[in-house]
UniProtKB/TrEMBL annotation:
Signal peptide: 1-21
Annotated InterPro entries: 5_nucleotidase/apyrase, Metallo-depent_PP-like
GO CC annotation terms, alphabetical: cytosol
Gene3D superfamilies per the UniProt record, alphabetical: 3.60.21.10
Recorded GO MF terms: hydrolase activity; nucleotide binding
Family membership: Belongs to the 5'-nucleotidase family.
Protein name: 5'-Nucleotidase/apyrase
Biological process (GO), any one: nucleotide catabolic process
The entry's keywords: Hydrolase, Nucleotide-binding, Signal
Length: 324
């Protein structure tokens, strides 16, 4: 119990501490909370006292965070968003022990007010669970922020022709400060690993060449983009390509890739795909990736300070961190 309280209180203490030292050029201080690869660990790790927070504790933490941003934060400057990056099924056994697997997990996830979540290979590999999830999303309004920009649903028992599994994108506006943003969601693509029966995954680099991206940007008019991706942080060429496709339409705007699948804790600036004269990869200062581990051992937290370029009028990432 004590460790759970420390977990919540220390995070809130950090929010307050950071809020006091924001650069004067900053127009938005954005906290992005992120988790991925939960794999059914709704009940915490009861035999490990440092990791025993369960899904209810997570929601309790989000309630505290929401209280802070509503009542204590600088509402002219600070906002937060919450994301998941897929692979919430298959893991603990007990939480999958329904027919189809994952009914309880989907029920609990639907109670969390995500700004975006997406699909992973452990969902796609369970066709009956995919049918169940599709039905819940489409017919009962579950998980309204679910985004699958490159995954289509093709089960002809339920649809006449392929359609995007969930929304291809969502438009958002930060609660306190009113900044517009767009959320997209991508599943990794492996040419030899996508015979899941009732879904088709398109290569993300092919997907962003399709007309939907222009339509999404026209509708959302994003000042920044959040991409929740069930893609390894190592697949930098994918992030470089997606960022380039967005930049070609909007000009250079901050883009955050919330990655998953490898269960690693890591973060960095995205590659540009170019090297300097010494052969070293040149990083993109306006593009960040972050992967938050797995099984709710940690909550990923990307802290961004965004300023506005006087010439282009676009936002840019002034500084960022990924504290644990
Ligand atoms: Zn995965």
């Amino acid at each position: 119990m004590r460790s759970k309280m420390l977990f919540s209180l220390s995070l809130l203490a950090i929010f307050v501490g950071v809020a006091l030292c924001v650069d004067e050029d900053t127009v938005l201080k954005l906290t992005v909370l992120h988790h991925s690869d939960m794999h059914g660990w709704l009940y915490g790790h009861k035999h490990e006292s440092n990791y025993n927070a369960d899904y209810g504790d997570y929601q309790a933490l989000l309630n505290h965070v929401d209280d802070y941003f509503t009542t204590e934060a600088d509402t002219t400057l600070e906002d937060y968003l919450v994301y998941d990056s897929g692979d919430f099924l298959q893991g603990t056994g007990l939480s999958d022990a329904t027919s189809p697997p994952g009914i309880d997990i989907i029920e609990v996830m639907n109670m969390v007010d995500f700004d975006g979540t997406t699909i992973g290979n452990h969902e796609l590999g369970l066709p009956e669970s995919v049918d169940y999830l599709w039905d819940k999303i489409h017919n009962e309004g579950y998980l309204p922020s679910f985004v699958t920009s490159n995954t289509d649903y093709v089960n002809t028992d339920f649809v006449d022709e392929p359609e995007t599994f969930a929304k291809k994108y969502t438009c958002g506006q930060t609660t306190n400060t009113g900044h517009k943003f767009m959320t997209v969601g991508f599943m990794y693509y492996k040419e030899t690993q996508h015979d899941f029966g009732n879904t088709i995954v398109t290569d993300p680099l092919v997907s962003v060449g399709q007309p939907w991206l222009q339509a999404a940007i026209d509708e959302c008019e994003p000042e920044f983009v959040i991409a929740t991706c069930h893609i390894s942080y190592q697949d930098q060429d994918v992030f470089t390509g997606i960022k380039a496709a967005i930049t070609a339409i909007t000009g250079d705007i901050p883009t955050v890739f919330l990655t998953g699948h490898t269960h690693w804790w890591t973060a960095g600036n995205c590659d540009t795909g170019e090297v300097d004269e010494d052969g070293v990869e040149i990083e993109d200062p306006n593009c960040v990736y972050a992967e938050p581990g797995a099984y709710y051992r940690y909550i990923g937290r990307v802290e961004l300070e965004l300023a506005r370029d006087a010439d282009s009028g676009n936002m840019y990432i002034q500084q960022w961190s990924h504290p644990r």
